[in-house]
């Protein structure tokens, strides 16, 4: 019995530890979703994983500031990579602190925000990633240009 408890604890702790995946380089395309239903992206034609791109009319710099603000409005989310036209954030779940990766590409060629949100571990996310991108999309559509002026981080992350 004790062996089973040790084995179960080891498996549970291993599932909680995740390393940062190899995500996209700057620009298109975003990494495809895995076959598991815990990822959504603007790059998918699959109705289970697809979300809509969000158009923007302001400058790419202003659009990126809006995307930054929309990401940072999410609870337990921090931006870990920020480059011109690209943001990568990590969102942590409340209880178990599982990490989801959220990416936004500010596509200045098409004047749209392209996005991806995916769980690092597990099979199902109970719709968490889709709901996250729906909230971010709503913020991107409603944030005024005047509200989007945000100072960049000093670290240049």
Q: How would you explain this protein's 3D organization?
A:
With 157 residues, the protein is of the alpha+beta class. The protein has a single domain, classed as TATA-Binding Protein (2-Layer Sandwich), CATH 3.30.310.80. It has helices at residues 2-16, 60-72, 128-142, and strands at 39-41, 54-55, 77-83, 86-92, 99-107, 112-119. Strands 1, 2, 3, 4, 5 and 6 form a six-stranded antiparallel β-sheet that branches. Helix 2 (60-72) crosses helix 3. The longest helix is centred in the N-terminal third of the chain and has 15 residues, at 2-16. It is globular, with a radius of gyration of 17 Å. Residues 4-18, 23-28 and 145-157 have low confidence and may be disordered.
List keywords for this structure.
single chain, 157 residues, TATA-Binding Protein, six-stranded antiparallel beta sheet, 3 helices, disordered C terminus
Percent of residues in helical segments? Answer: 25-40%
Describe the global form.
globular
Low-confidence stretches: 4-18, 23-28, 145-157
Briefly note the CATH topology name: TATA-Binding Protein
Structural class by sheet pairing and helices = alpha+beta
Q: Which value, in Å, is the CA radius of gyration?
A: 17 Å
Main beta sheet strand tally, sense and closure: 6 strands, antiparallel
The first-level CATH class name? Alpha Beta
How many beta-strand segments? 6
- The percent range for strand residues is 15-25%
Number of helical segments with 4 or more residues: 3
As an assembly, this protein is single chain
Number of individual domains:
1
Determine the CATH superfamily.
Kinase associated domain 1, KA1
CATH architecture: 2-Layer Sandwich
